[in-house]
Amino acid sequence: MNIALLSHDRKKELMVQFCMAYCGILSRHSLRATDTTGRLVREATGLPVELYLTASMGGTQQIGVRIAYNEIDLVLFFCDPDFEQGAETVNEISRLCDRYSVPFASNIATAEVLIQGLMRGDLGWRDIVNPKK
Description:
Largest sheet: 5 strands, parallel
Number of domains: 1
Structural class: alpha/beta
CATH class: Alpha Beta
CATH architecture: 3-Layer(aba) Sandwich
Strand order of the largest sheet: 3-2-1-4-5
Strand content: 15-25%
Mean pLDDT: 91
Number of strands: 5
């Protein structure tokens, strides 16, 4: 599965810790991320991460396009609820995930549930509903 990783600045360290904790599961999947988040995860875990632009340069939009083209199967976007300017970006990604039936987590609690489901194979329905070409 293709997993997108995004995080607001104050949640980047949490994303890194999450990826370190679930490195074994994540290593069996393809990771994509905005530049800064992806570099931090790659440096901390050694996992290969395909990098897009930084969020401020359009990386979030690049991920949004890939969601729309069915190239992303799961989105983990650790949001800072106190970062009001970031709410629009979260809403855009969340709306795309809803439109294209892509599981979405905006916090670590939901991300853990999705990762555990991914490990059990609960997200295999993505391959049936949205088969890869």
